[in-house]
Write a structure and sequence with these properties.
6 helices, mainly alpha, single chain, 0% strand
C-alpha cells in the first residue's frame, strides 16, 4: 500500500504526518499515555470532556486510574515539523492542494515504522 501512495506522491493523512500510528479512533481505549498527551495538547476541550465523562459515568478509561493519572507527565507524541498537518487536524480543514506531495515524498512520522507505528 505505501508503495502506491509513494509512487503517486499522495500525501498521507495528517494524523500520520503529525505522529499518530493510526487514524481510526482518536481516543481509543487501547491508546498510550503519549497519544493521550498529544490529544491533551491538540484538543484540550475534548480531553477535558473525556475527563468529565469519567466523573459523570463513574468509571475510568483505564481500570486502575483516571485519565490524568494514566497520562501523568507523558510527553506529547505530536510531531510539530509538519504545520500543514497540524493545522488540518486542529481545524478540520483540508485543502485540495494538500492531497499530493510537492517535491520529495517521505514516509510520515507516525506510520510505516514497524508494528509499533510512530511516536504516538
Amino acid at each position: 500500500m505505501s508503495g502506491s501512495i509513494k509512487r503517486h506522491k499522495v500525501n498521507p493523512h495528517p494524523c500520520y504526518r503529525a505522529g499518530w500510528n493510526r487514524c481510526s479512533c482518536a481516543m481509543c481505549i487501547f491508546s498510550t499515555p503519549t497519544l493521550f498527551a498529544g490529544i491533551r495538547e491538540l484538543y484540550p476541550e475534548d480531553y477535558g470532556m473525556l475527563k468529565q465523562d469519567e466523573e459523570i459515568l463513574g468509571f475510568t478509561l483505564d481500570n486502575n486510574c483516571d485519565l490524568d493519572t494514566f497520562v501523568g507527565s507523558a510527553k506529547s507524541c505530536v510531531y510539530h515539523d509538519d504545520q500543514e498537518a497540524l493545522y488540518s487536524l486542529v481545524t478540520g480543514e483540508f485543502s485540495r492542494d494538500s492531497v499530493y506531495v510537492k517535491g520529495q515524498w517521505m514516509y510520515p512520522t507516525g506510520a510505516f515504522h514497524g508494528a509499533e507505528g510512530g511516536p504516538c
